[in-house]
């Protein structure tokens, strides 16, 4: 049963921590992974108050993008003000949709910055060749008894070589 537009509360179906990906075989976008929770709020909530509640729901500050009732996931609308929020609620009232479909993500400024390239290469290999070279280095350290004063042989795998 759909709540009338003058109901005191409105529900948001909030998804966060996942990704929007194409579905096989038709390529239609869908949300995969993460969490999905329902949040009921007073209809006269301000945008700022809503962001606080959404942040409490996720445990971090968020940006809000919503799916309009007649649109697919490729046309999400960013909600950034009281006016955007009022327009969104009006669209859902017009369509008699029971819940507002919301997608939450960390704000761009809150996303983790990547470490410097020298640290990233040493601690988080990003390619097969880097993993291979690190395994070779580990193997060399094992067979040399941990004596790093001995230089390893020049390891070659196609165009990849390791030189310390």
Automatic annotation (TrEMBL):
Q: Which residues form the PB1 domain?
A: 24-107
Q: Which InterPro entries match?
A: Gynoecium_Dev_Regulator, PB1_dom
For this protein, the record's Gene3D superfamilies field holds:
Phosphatidylinositol 3-kinase Catalytic Subunit, Chain A, domain 1
Q: Which Pfam families match?
A: PB1
Query: What is the name listed in the Swiss-Prot or TrEMBL entry for this protein?
Result: Octicosapeptide/Phox/Bem1p (PB1) domain-containing protein
Which source organism? Actinidia rufa
